[in-house]
């Protein structure tokens, strides 16, 4: 798989990253989302230390990711329990015949 170097910008600073050719549009989109979040945090807090803004944004994103993982685990458990109930209902119905 070939890759290319792409320049993305965060708070006016350009960073070059390597990216597989087929993922370049995804990278640009994700970089834009991150840049918007950094700008929002900068406006909200008034902080100008880019490193601090990046760390706070990274912590927020990690927290959101962990919450989504917990939701996914909960959904999977719920689906499994519903599948067990349905399996029991089907087994009961088949055994009656």
Automatic annotation (TrEMBL):
<dbReference type="GO" id="GO:0000921">
    <property type="term" value="P:septin ring assembly"/>
</dbReference>
<keyword id="KW-0963">Cytoplasm</keyword>
<dbReference type="GO" id="GO:0043093">
    <property type="term" value="P:FtsZ-dependent cytokinesis"/>
</dbReference>
<dbReference type="GO" id="GO:0030428">
    <property type="term" value="C:cell septum"/>
</dbReference>
<keyword id="KW-0175">Coiled coil</keyword>
<dbReference type="InterPro" id="IPR007838">
    <property type="entry name" value="Cell_div_ZapA-like"/>
</dbReference>
<keyword id="KW-0132">Cell division</keyword>
<dbReference type="Pfam" id="PF05164">
    <property type="entry name" value="ZapA"/>
</dbReference>
<keyword id="KW-0131">Cell cycle</keyword>
<comment type="subunit">
    <text>Homodimer. Interacts with FtsZ.</text>
</comment>
<comment type="function">
    <text>Activator of cell division through the inhibition of FtsZ GTPase activity, therefore promoting FtsZ assembly into bundles of protofilaments necessary for the formation of the division Z ring. It is recruited early at mid-cell but it is not essential for cell division.</text>
</comment>
<dbReference type="GO" id="GO:0032153">
    <property type="term" value="C:cell division site"/>
</dbReference>
<protein>
    <recommendedName>
        <fullName>Cell division protein ZapA</fullName>
    </recommendedName>
</protein>
<dbReference type="InterPro" id="IPR036192">
    <property type="entry name" value="Cell_div_ZapA-like_sf"/>
</dbReference>
<comment type="similarity">
    <text>Belongs to the ZapA family. Type 1 subfamily.</text>
</comment>
<keyword id="KW-0717">Septation</keyword>
<dbReference type="GO" id="GO:0000917">
    <property type="term" value="P:division septum assembly"/>
</dbReference>
<dbReference type="GO" id="GO:0005829">
    <property type="term" value="C:cytosol"/>
</dbReference>
<dbReference type="InterPro" id="IPR042233">
    <property type="entry name" value="Cell_div_ZapA_N"/>
</dbReference>
């Amino acid at each position: 798989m070939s890759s290319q170097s792409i320049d993305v910008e965060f708070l006016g600073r350009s960073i070059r990253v390597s990216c597989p050719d087929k993922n370049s549009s995804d990278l640009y989109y994700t970089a834009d989302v991150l840049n918007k979040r950094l700008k929002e945090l900068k406006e909200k807090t008034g902080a100008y230390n880019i490193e601090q803004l990046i760390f706070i944004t990274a912590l927020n994103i990690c927290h959101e990711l962990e919450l989504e993982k917990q939701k996914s685990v909960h959904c999977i458990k719920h689906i499994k329990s519903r599948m067990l109930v349905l399996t029991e209902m089907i087994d009961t119905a088949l055994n009656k015949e």
